[in-house]
Structure formats: structure tokens, C-alpha cells
Design brief:
Blueprint (H helix, E strand, L loop, with lengths): L2 H4 L1 H28 L1 H32 L2 H5 L1 H8 L2 H7 L1 H4 L2 H4 L5 H6 L1 H5 L6 H32 L2 H29 L12 H24 L11 H32 L5 H7 L4 H20 L2 H4 L2 H23 L12 H22 L16 H5 L1
Helix pairs in contact: 2-3, 2-19, 3-5, 3-12, 3-13, 3-18, 3-19, 5-19, 11-12, 12-13, 13-14, 13-18, 14-16, 16-18
Length: 392
């Protein structure tokens, strides 16, 4: 029995349940398009941004691990590879957004552009054809870049060629820079332009870090779930969880630093073009959610992840990872939804069903990719926590 087959029944059951629940929830969400088209598209965009983070974040972690190495990535390597292979799904799911820009983006309205000089001045960049072209370009870059380097990694797994391993590392370094640049512009286009009068140079970097953090949390929760089964039971050590916990702490701190830096700069400048963004998010009930995120997205996870007994205990680390997934979804909602619902905090049923629908379909596709290869790579030269790894 291969390492993958030992988890086969559990993966099959999880994939089947995820697909059934996802399809039902997504179908229910589509009903919302006939009931309330405006709120349907708002929910669809939110769900897309939230769930696509797992695929985009997987690509980022894959490139990061190729550059810096480390045992932490060996344990979750198949997870992140399977995650980046789901990018074509989101290239498909983004198409409806490209045809619904008039429901989502104010800069598509000629009257709005005429009344707001700053927005009209940006028309060369913010127009539907260029917006769609850039989106297509981002996905072409991500999919081609990820698939080519993954192909090289698979070839290295087969041959063990040291020269090929060095080449992967050399190629991944500039690819990581391209990843950061393209995600920066993608989040400017998809999210920041929802409020075209406002801008922040930190905002897209903040979103990129948040997506990587969300992906780390998901991969950790999945690793703990599988850690009692072969091939992980005989491979995973406490040090793996400790390393992954430290990385989750690092990205939590980086996310908080960027968020605080953005807030302090805008607060200090007190410019009328910038402060309305925060006024909307701390008024009409949105402020309660904002303070909740500040405390439970940073303060509590930060202090818990400083403690070794949390990071070295799989069950505690999994509970914290799941909690970070939850607050990440709330944080993305806090960023996206007030652009449409300025007066008060409002949650529509499609906001929930789209998360379940897209999340279930994505998870089924993710597991389908995961089942195609062995869960662990026995000859990965970055594996130094096992006797076999030290032998290399």
C-alpha cells in the first residue's frame, strides 16, 4: 500500500462530502442572483477573494520554500503543491466578475467619474478592458510560473539531480518577486478599486501577507488532521509543528505591523481623501467587527504563539489555526463589504453560502490533486529531521 492509499478512504469521504455540500451551497447562492442581484455580486466577490486566497497563498508558500528551504515545507509540500494546482479553478470563477463590473466598481459609471476628478483622472488605468486584461495576465503568470517550477520539482523527485535542485531554487527567487508584484496589482484592481477615491501603498502588501497567513493556517490544520495516519505518523515530529507555528507567528506579526502602519500614517496625515475609508469601517456597527479583529486576529494569537506548549502541541496548534482561518474570513469581509454597505453592518445569507459553496468545491478539487501523488517526498534534500533526510 502506497503512502497515499493509507489515507485513501478518509480523503475520498472528505472529497465527496465537500463536493456535495459545496455544489448545494453554490447552487443556493446562484438563486440569490435572481432574488437580489446587487447583493449577490457583492457576496460573490467577497467569497471569491476569501477562497482564492488559498490557491494564491499556496503559490506564494511554494516559491518561498523553494528559496529559503526548511523542514517545515517538506511536511506540507504536497498540500501547497495541490493548492497551487487549483489556480485554474479561480481563473474560471473570475470570469463572472469581469462581466459584472458595473455592479461592483464605481469607476465603471461615467457619471461617477465626471463628479469625482481623482477617479476620472485614473480612467486610463481603471477601465473595464484594461481591468479584464490585467486579470487574465495575472492568472497566466501565476499558472505558468507555478506549473513550470512544479514540473521541475517533480522531475527532481524522480531523478534526485542536485543540479536541478539548485536550478529550482534559482528560478524560484525571481518568481517570488514576480508573485509579490502581480498580487500587489491584483489586489489593487480587485479590492482597493472598490473605493476608487482612496488609495494606500501598504494595502495590497497587507492582503498578500494575509493570504499567506490564511494558507499557512489551513495547511497546519490539515497536517494535524492527517498526522496520526501513515505516512505522516512515522514522519512528522514535534519540531515540524514548532516550525510551522513560528511561521504562523511571523506572518501574524507582519500582518499586524502593516495594518497598524497603514492606520497610523492615515491618522497622522488626517487627509480628507484617506480618512473616509476608516470612518466607514468604524461606524454603523463595523467598528465592533474592527475591534474584534484587532483583538482576536492579532493580540490573542500573538501571545499564544509565543508559547512553546502551544506550538509543540498539535491539537492546540490546530485549534489556533482554525481560529485564524475564521478571523481571516471576517477580516476580508471587513475590508470588502463596507465598500457597498456603508451605513451599517449588514450580513446577507449569500455571504455565508458563497463561502461554503466555493470553499467546498475548492476543497474537493484540492483533494483530487492531493490524491494523485504520494503524500511525502522521501528524497527531498531539505528533510533533515529524519534519519533518511540526514543521510542525504
Amino acid at each position: 500500500m502506497t503512502p497515499t492509499n493509507t489515507l485513501g478512504p478518509q480523503l475520498d469521504r472528505l472529497q465527496r462530502n465537500a463536493l456535495v455540500i459545496g455544489v448545494i451551497a453554490f447552487a443556493a447562492t446562484l438563486v440569490g442572483a435572481f432574488v437580489d442581484k446587487q447583493h449577490f455580486w457583492q457576496s460573490y466577490l467577497y467569497g471569491y477573494i476569501a477562497i482564492s486566497a488559498l490557491a494564491i497563498g499556496s503559490l506564494g508558500i511554494f516559491l518561498l520554500h523553494n528559496v529559503v528551504g526548511g523542514n517545515w515545507g517538506v511536511a506540507i509540500r504536497r498540500f501547497i503543491e495541490s493548492g497551487l494546482q487549483t489556480l485554474p479553478l479561480f481563473a474560471l470563477l473570475v470570469i463572472p466578475i469581469l462581466f459584472a463590473t458595473t455592479f461592483l466598481y464605481k469607476w465603471t459609471d461615467a457619471t461617477y467619474r465626471a463628479e469625482h476628478f481623482a477617479v476620472g483622472h485614473k480612467a486610463v488605468y481603471m477601465n473595464v478592458p484594461f481591468f479584464a486584461g490585467r486579470t487574465v495576465f495575472y492568472f497566466i503568470v501565476w499558472i505558468v510560473m507555478g506549473s513550470r517550477i512544479l514540473k521541475m520539482a517533480n522531475e527532481h523527485d524522480r531523478t534526485g539531480d542536485p543540479a536541478l535542485f539548485k536550478r529550482i531554487k534559482g528560478v524560484s527567487a525571481p518568481a517570488l518577486l514576480v508573485f509579490v508584484l502581480t498580487t500587489t496589482f491584483a489586489f489593487i484592481d480587485w479590492i482597493m478599486s472598490l473605493e476608487p477615491d482612496w488609495y494606500s501603498t501598504i494595502y495590497p502588501w497587507l492582503f498578500t501577507v494575509g493570504e499567506v497567513l490564511l494558507t499557512f493556517a489551513f495547511m497546519i490544520a490539515l497536517l494535524v488532521l492527517f498526522s496520526k495516519h501513515e505516512p505522516f505518523a512515522g514522519f512528522i515530529k514535534t519540531a515540524h509543528f514548532h516550525d510551522l507555528g513560528n511561521l504562523m507567528l511571523a506572518f501574524t506579526m507582519l500582518w499586524a505591523y502593516m495594518g497598524l502602519a497603514q492606520f497610523l500614517i492615515i491618522w497622522a496625515e488626517n487627509l480628507p481623501d484617506e480618512i473616509p475609508w476608516y470612518i466607514r469601517r468604524f461606524s454603523g456597527g463595523w467598528g465592533y467587527l474592527g475591534w474584534f479583529i484587532s483583538i482576536f486576529h492579532f493580540c490573542i494569537p500573538f501571545f499564544l504563539l509565543l508559547m512553546r506548549f502551544v506550538k509543540r502541541n498539535p491539537q492546540r496548534l490546530r485549534a489556533l489555526a482554525i481560529w485564524i482561518i475564521v478571523v481571516r474570513m471576517l477580516d476580508i469581509f471587513w475590508y470588502v463589504a463596507p465598500a457597498f454597505r456603508e451605513r451599517k453592518l449588514e450580513v446577507y445569507w449569500t455571504d455565508i453560502t458563497v463561502l461554503i459553496g466555493m470553499g467546498g468545491i475548492w476543497l474537493a478539487y484540492f483533494i483530487w490533486n492531493l490524491k494523485k501523488r504520494p503524500m511525502l517526498v522521501p528524497n527531498d534534500p531539505r528533510n533533515t529531521y529524519s534519519v533518511k533526510g540526514r543521510a542525504h
